[in-house]
Structure of Paraquat-inducible protein B:
Amino acid sequence: MNRQALVGAFVLGGVALLVSAFVLFGSFNPFSHTDRAVLVFRGATNGLSVGAPVSFRGVQVGAVDRIAIDYDPKTREAFIPVYITLRRDDILVAGRKNGHLPSLRELVDHGLRGEMNLKSFVTGTSQIDLDIAPETPAVFHPEIASETEIPTRQSSIQAITNTLTHLPLRKLSTDAASTLVTLKHLAETLDRSIPALADSVKQTSDHSRALVDTAQLMITALQPQLQKTLTDIDRLARNGSGQLTARGHDLHLLVENSRRTMETANQALGNIRDMTGSRSEDRANLAATLRDIAAAASALRGFANDVERNPQLLLTGRRQ
């Protein structure tokens, strides 16, 4: 009997130690307050499994309980609801006393958001990270979530993954291959053309050097003649300046005489204008003179006609 009691006490002690170790070092704590929540992801949840940690800025506050798939045949869209358990005792709010903890709905209203991030690059496992991000709009799925829903946002790793997933790799590969072929063809063309181009450049350089040498010789030969021509031009300019200085007085007199002649001409034109004016007395006298001359010419014409008809008038005169 004592032996059986000893065995039973040993077994009970072992169970108590096991439970104590599990409670102290494990994630299970029957005396802590927990909340259940769900996060609905639209994309893939690669690396996320049941038991994955749920952390808030690096501090683990829960774990993943269940991962499901919600498929809508009408829209052909699939959502991944991830159910988690949060330990409320690990979440404190400044100013709250007497153990009064905020509800999960209050935390969501204050901007609690969740995202899926890579936990280990080696194993490829993922975890759920929570953070306060009120600038991220809250999108809820009441038709899917049966628990309190924590809105999700796209993590930077997911954004990079989606970008890489939607990259047109086949087109990029085809374009790269086409570019390599073009570069190879260009390299071959340049390999064939560069020697001929180098020879042409060398010949052009030789011709240019010969042309420069010829031009230098011509300039050397023409330099004395150019110097003589410049000297003659300078002497001609000095002579012209001297002649202009010497003829300056004559030119002044010529200009003065021309001015006087112009004044005399203007005065004569003024007199003529006065004589031919409509109210000028000289014009009236000239008009009377012209009328008298016209009358005399008419009388002379009549006398000439009479003489032509009767020549004796020259001897006998007209009889009264």
